[in-house]
Amino acid sequence: MAELERRYTNGRAIGDYFDLVAGTSTGGILGLGLGAGLTGRDLQNLYVERGFEVFPSLPRGLCGRLKGIWRNGLHYLRYRYDQTALEALLMDRLGARRLLGSSKVRLVVPAFEGRHSEVFVFKTPHHPDYKTDRHVPMVTVGLATAAAPAFFRPLERGGYLLVDGGVWANNPVMLAVIEALTCFTVEPTQIDVLTIGCGNDPYVVSSKQIQLGGLFFWKDAIFAAMRLQSLAATNQARLLLGPPNVMRLDAPTNEKQIALDDWRRSVEELVPEAVKCVATKGDMIAAQFLFTPAQPYTPCPE
């Protein structure tokens, strides 16, 4: 997003060019940032310069490896991180009192409700029937959608137990498409979608999974489910809207998977890969999405 702004919008916030933004987990935080009026550059700086506050890197060398072994072992028994650092960061950038209803752009942010085993979606008041979420603090929405299992404690709020939306909507593109079709008088062919991933990271079944099986070897199968849900959602959107109407931007990653909390590798590898992606597809994206800002969004009255 920052690179698209640099190349095509003269620094204007990329959120100004879209009628609706959907985001899950870290994407939900990015969407909230756009709703709060931040630019892609602001958000890049948030991750690159301050991400270590949430996911502190281990020191290099033997000491770091030993601490990593200890931390990984402990991770089987308890949450890896305290949400306090993430909450403080979100309060600083989104504003402790900024409510979802004050967003500058329509937002759809999924979570998972773990007490009643239901999907849960936060929405700005962009439809007259949406009355309950406008007074929810943006920080609360961010903490809920990004409460990754085993990394952060689920967020308890109003009798609900909220977990990372990636459990069921790792790629929320179809949530956005359905939202547009049901809330507004538009035909499928009128909808253009830009969907941005966190890196194209294939899940390949290993020889040990094939030969031995067992829970130990399949413990990371959630990553297969998340990848396949993302692929399926993108393909469903293309079938519904037409392939030219859905553009997917996903930076390739190397053979070794980047861990969710590996801030150092994410900065070193994903940022330059994202720049390369924009260099390849930026002109097409600009022609389809960045030629003129969207009409300003006005929330429905209470």
Structural notes for this entry:
By secondary structure, the protein is of the alpha/beta class. Helix content is 44%, strand content 11%. It has eleven helices and seven strands. The chain has helices spanning 2-9, 26-35, 40-54, 62-75, 84-94, 138-145, 166-169, 173-183, 207-211, 221-241, 263-289; strands spanning 20-22, 106-113, 118-123, 155-157, 160-164, 193-196, 246-249. The strands form two sheets. Strands 1, 2, 3, 4 and 5 form a five-stranded mixed beta sheet that branches. Strands 6-7 form a two-stranded parallel ribbon. β4 and β5 form a beta hairpin. The longest helix is centred in the last third of the chain and has 27 residues, at 263-289. The chain is globular. The protein starts with a helix and ends in a 13-residue tail after the last helix. 33% of the residues are buried. The model has no long low-confidence stretch (mean pLDDT 91).
